Amino acid sequence: MRVLVAEDEKTLAGYIAEGLRESAMSVDLAHDGTTALEKLGIGCYDVVVLDRDLPGTHGDEICRHLVSAGGRTRVLMLTAMSDVRERIAGLRLGADDYLGKPFDFDELVARLDALARRPREAAPPVLRKADVVLDSAHRRVSRGGRYLSLTNKEFAVLAELLAAAGAVVSAEELLRSVWDENADPFTNAVRMTMHRLRSKLGEPGIIETLPGVGYRVVDPSC
């Protein structure tokens, strides 16, 4: 999942970003509304964690812009204004969810997971292919009943491939969704992560490489 954290309190923004990255999410930061709009215009984000009272362009205007543009990015408003009337106002602007400060970090992660699943009806919390099972809610992967120890990147790459349900996912798409805006498009990060992931998944292989095109999951029994 790729997330934009638009928060002007830099310490809080860093804390959120670090925690989300530990939860296998790709995170970019914006500390003002103008920068947030620029990043939303060029990046492909599943969710934006949006401080309502941003400097530059106000969070309300960013929310209105996203709603009118009709994009796929979901909006979770994160703000100190947690009064019921403020929450209602934020939701009426088109926000998909609203979380007041201070907040429980586990709740933030759970809400982001739920929001990211909304536009992907084919990607339920538990994804399966052959004897491989990925449980996004509990961050667990097993094969043949044996739990595997995956890094955050390995977990996220496998989740993207399983969610594609057999469709081909290019290396560029994986860079956009699993890494962040600083990822070098010429890096071999995807290839190296795929190599380690295949090794951990073991045989028979379920990840197929289509040279020059991308990767897809297959059922080795077929």
TrEMBL record:
PANTHER family noted in UniProt: REGULATOR OF RPOS, TRANSCRIPTIONAL REGULATORY PROTEIN CUTR
UniProt keyword annotations, A-Z: DNA-binding, Phosphoprotein
Keyword DNA-binding attached: yes
Organism of origin: Amycolatopsis ultiminotia
Residue numbers carrying 4-aspartylphosphate: 51
UniProt-listed SUPFAM superfamilies: CheY-like (SSF52172)
Domain OmpR/PhoB-type span(s) in chain numbering: 124-219
Domain of life: Bacteria
CDD domains listed in its UniProt record: trans_reg_C (cd00383)
Name listed for the protein in its UniProt record: Response regulator transcription factor
The Response regulatory domain, residue ranges: 2-116
Residues within the DNA-binding region(s): 124-219
Classification via SMART domains: REC, Trans_reg_C
Pfam families cross-referenced by the UniProt entry: Response_reg (PF00072), Trans_reg_C (PF00486)
